[in-house]
Amino acid sequence: MIQEPHNVGTFFGCIGKDKFGEILKQKAEEAHIDAHYYEQDEEPTGSCAACITGDNRSLVANLAAANCYKKDKHLDLEENWKLVEKAKVFYIAGFFLTVSLESILKVAKHASENNKIFCLNLSAPFICQFFKDNLMQVMPYVDVLFGNETEAAAFAKEQDFETKDIKEIAKKAQALPKDNTKRQRIVVLTQGKDQTVLASSDKVETFPVLKIDSKDIVDTNGAGDAFVGGFLSELVQEKPLHQCVKAAHYAANVIIRRAGCTFPEKPDFN
């Protein structure tokens, strides 16, 4: 989405020393992402089977190496931590709460102490349910919280919000305790084809998504990630929130028209 300059984004994760690991490195390079992987040979690179049924998708993940990230083996290394110190915005998927809470907390606290932006995704209902303690240890450091309607419902239930209204859920999540008071939390909740809800300190707004004919939807896999990618591409350029949402909607709309998590060479977003 940013295009120029190249390599504005740095990516950390864990892979195996194998063909799939090489593919990940190659794809990151093609997308001009500066990927720094922790490479280990105990587990192969993670893989995932996607089953597409109409507009819906089911995933069967073999996490493998993705489960093996180690703070002391990678994040703490001087050359990697320097990249963290250089960054202004951080994004971590909620899935990573099952892998290395200590890595998340180290980055989250760094962001909070230096008034940088830390973003987290709820990622899945099971994260809200079974990794609630880990999630709530990180929540005070979260500046931007992403989630979809099913994740929001699970989160609300676990937090005893006593509401199923998505706007109320966004508002209550926005008001949870926060470490860095210089920044008010923003909560962004998507609802598939229904409007996106954005809660900031003083208001809750809704934004309609781009209309798409169901016959044009090829594969919804990656829509949530594309949404976040679009949002962050404008956020890092300090654009207003409504522009971030517009970019998010554009990116998700592009992804669902194509098989797999693929995108055209150049975006036509403005």
From TrEMBL:
Listed transmembrane segments: none
ATP-binding is among the record's keywords: yes
Active site, UniProt feature: D225 (proton acceptor)
Keywords annotated in UniProt: ATP-binding, Kinase, Magnesium, Nucleotide-binding, Nucleus, Purine salvage, Transferase
Carbohydrate kinase PfkB domain: residues covered: 10-264
Listed InterPro entries: Adenokinase, Carboh/pur_kinase_PfkB_CS, PfkB_dom, Ribokinase-like
Cofactor: Mg(2+)
Pathway annotation from the record: Purine metabolism; AMP biosynthesis via salvage pathway; AMP from adenosine: step 1/1
Pfam family, one: PfkB
Entry-linked CDD domains: adenosine_kinase
EC number(s) per entry: 2.7.1.20
Entry's localization field: Nucleus
Catalytic reaction(s) noted: adenosine + ATP = AMP + ADP + H(+)
Record's cofactor remark: Binds 3 Mg(2+) ions per subunit.
Highest taxon listed in the record's lineage: Eukaryota
Top EC category: transferase
An example molecular function term from Gene Ontology annotations: ATP binding
Nucleus among keywords: yes
Assembly behavior: Monomer.
Function description: ATP dependent phosphorylation of adenosine and other related nucleoside analogs to monophosphate derivatives.
Similarity-based family: Belongs to the carbohydrate kinase PfkB family.
Record's protein name: Adenosine kinase
